[in-house]
Design brief:
By secondary structure, this protein is an alpha/beta fold. It contains ten helices and 20 strands. The protein has helices at residues 5-15, 21-37, 53-56, 71-77, 108-113, 117-122, 133-141, 375-383, 388-404, 410-428, and strands spanning 84-88, 91-92, 104-107, 144-150, 160-166, 174-175, 177-183, 188-197, 204-213, 218-226, 232-241, 246-253, 258-267, 273-282, 287-296, 302-311, 316-325, 333-342, 348-357, 363-371. The strands form two sheets. Strands 2-1-5-8-10-12-14-16-18-20 form a ten-stranded mixed β-sheet, covered by helices on one side. Strand 1 (84-88) and strand 2 (91-92) form a beta hairpin.
């Protein structure tokens, strides 16, 4: 058993002891995988800049009885007005949710109990337990989650919002929610996931989202991670795309002591388009890590990725973006960009865009920058009567706005802009 695996063994044993045979088998296989690999250390190249080893030395527990959450708490956090699924400490709470019968959405546990065939087909087969140590841990230990099915040719009228809330009861606990989204042929819809701490606790969020896009489907996936300053957050999102599908992702990361998001997309059919946008804002001694991987498995596909970061104080960020182009994937058009703005001398970024190309008729570019505010631009604004602080805010906002405008739902975009403005205000003191 590898380092850290024993800390989760009791949780895995409890989770893998019940459920349908297919799920028990899958969970036990994932538990065995995690026992084999354990919590990664900085000697692992994929985790070299992200010190998650302290996770291995913490005696994580299951969440006890959750602290009550009110409807007013939920309302204050919402970014959209459509259907709502609320998970408190990893467990779906029907009383706080609003899932009309007109959409095929439910808690994950309810879908499993009802014998949902799509769940059996896809759960743990898109975000494989072999992808990362924490994806194995997730499948072995998840408690509940949300399932959304978009039927062929249908369109979700408003985005489904999923609120992942942690309460004081999560102190010292592992919280492991999972989300499964399936979009059948020509279906369209958007999902907004938020991760929010309602108490300043030390907890580990290990969240996995699987997105299955059928032919010519369209899914926008917005992810906002704003947990407490002492939380650990490890997330993994994997989108599997069929022919002519469109996956659009936006991720905002501002919370947690240490946060990591693995974002993967597999372009498994021709004429696929994948768009990934992201923004991380860090302060104090926070660390935010984004690892993306885009797999071009078929020809005539496009991928576009832009991630930006603003770092203050002694905070750190990691960006590692990989684009893989298979020999068959001719006419691939891929572009990847990572830009970082440092607000202090002590802030640090480790950025590593990567291309692995095995086809010869492609257009692939990548680039990364790390810099500071343009003093000439600030001086120009000040000569026009704009104060120094305001000039600084304007320049930072202009830097971040490029990715914020890529959120296509106005209400959600406005809400995210408010969150970003509040964070920038705090970062600038």
């Amino acid at each position: 058993m590898q380092v850290g695996a024993s800390a989760f063994a009791a949780l895995a044993d409890a989770a893998t002891s019940s459920g349908p045979a297919w799920l028990v088998a899958r969970r036990r296989e994932a538990a065995a995988r995690f026992a084999e690999v354990g919590v990664p250390s900085t000697r692992d190249e994929e985790w070299r800049f992200t010190p998650v080893a302290p996770i291995a030395t913490t005696a994580w527990t299951a969440v006890g009885a959750s602290t009550p959450v009110s409807a007013a708490d939920v309302a204050a956090l919402r970014l959209a007005d459509g259907p709502l699924a609320v998970l408190v400490d990893g467990v779906f709470v029907a009383a706080l949710s609003n899932l009309p019968v007109s959409i095929q959405a439910s808690s994950l546990q309810a879908a499993i109990a009802a014998g949902d065939a799509a769940v059996e087909t896809h759960l743990g087969t898109i975000a494989l337990p072999t992808a990362t140590p924490f994806s194995a841990l997730s499948l072995a230990t998840f408690t509940d989650g949300v399932v959304l099915h978009l039927a062929a040719g249908t369109e979700l009228a408003a985005p489904l919002e999923i609120l992942h809330l942690t309460t004081a009861a999560a102190d010292g606990a592992l919280v492991a929610p999972r989300v499964l989204i399936t979009a059948a042929k020509a279906a369209r819809g958007a999902v907004v996931e938020q991760f929010v701490s309602l108490a300043d606790t030390v907890h580990l969020s290990n969240a996995v989202t699987e997105v299955v896009l059928g032919e010519a489907s369209w899914v926008e996936h917005i992810r906002v991670q704003r947990e407490g300053a002492r939380a650990w957050h490890v997330g993994y999102t994997h989108a599997h795309q069929a022919r002519a599908s469109h996956y659009r992702s936006f991720a905002l990361s501002i919370g947690g002591k240490v946060s990591r998001h693995n974002l993967h997309a597999r372009l498994a059919g021709e004429q696929v388009e994948t768009l990934m946008y992201g923004l991380y804002l860090t302060q104090h001694e926070q660390l935010a890590d984004t690892h993306s991987a885009i797999f071009h498995d078929q020809p005539n596909c496009n991928s576009w990725e832009v991630y930006k970061g603003v770092l203050a104080d002694k905070s750190r960020a990691v960006f590692n973006g990989k684009v893989f182009v298979e020999p068959i994937a001719q006419k691939t058009d891929a572009k990847q960009t990572n830009r970082n703005l440092l607000l202090s001398d002590q802030a640090k970024v480790d950025t590593k865009p990567q291309l692995e190309i095995f086809a010869d008729d492609v257009k692939c570019t990548h680039g990364a920058t790390v810099g500071r505010l343009n003093e000439q631009q600030r001086y120009y604004l000040q000569t026009r009567g704009i104060g120094g602080r305001t000039a600084q805010e304007l320049l930072i906002w202009a830097f971040a706005a490029e990715v914020l405008t890529e959120v296509t739902i106005p209400a959600v975009r406005n809400g995210i802009e408010r969150i970003v403005r509040d964070r920038l205000e705090a970062m600038l003191g």
